[in-house]
Structure formats: C-alpha cells, structure tokens
Amino acid sequence: MALMITDECINCDVCEPECPNNAIYQGDEIYEIDPNKCTECVGHFDEPQCQQVCPVDCIPLDPDHAETQEQLMDKFVKLTGKG
C-alpha cells in the first residue's frame, strides 16, 4: 500500500526531505503523499523513512491504495530505472 498523511499532521517539515521518491509535498493544509510515487521506501530502505521521522505518528498505510511488495518493487523500478 502507499502511505498517507492524516489530518494530525503538524507541518513540521521533517518527512518531505526524507522521501527518496519525492512523493511527499505540501498540500493546501497539510503535507500529502502522491500514491503514484510512494513505494513505502521499497527498493530504497527497509522501512518507510517518513514514518521513522514523523514526531506525531500520522503516516499510516492508505487503505485506498493496497499494493503487494511486488507491486511496490515494480513501481520503484519504473520510478528509478533501477532493478
């Protein structure tokens, strides 16, 4: 699954620079994650970096974008050209 940022976000700015896919961006009110770019850091790291640095724990899995590990790896390959 892609990740999402909930309305508990405090706009602390720590998640956005940690995303290796540039999937996190400033939305109208809080940071948001582009599900087409989010691989949960599959291919880059063992765990999602945004979740690791978030001080308020507001980055859960997005139930509207269910993906397997294989699908996340395929997305990583498409986004980076690595594989």
TrEMBL record:
Example GO molecular function: metal ion binding
Keywords per UniProt: 4Fe-4S, Electron transport, Iron, Iron-sulfur, Metal-binding, Repeat, Transport
One Pfam family matching this protein: Fer4_7
GO cellular component: cytoplasm
Domain 4Fe-4S ferredoxin-type: 1-29, 31-64
Taxonomic superkingdom: Bacteria
Protein name per the record: YfhL family 4Fe-4S dicluster ferredoxin
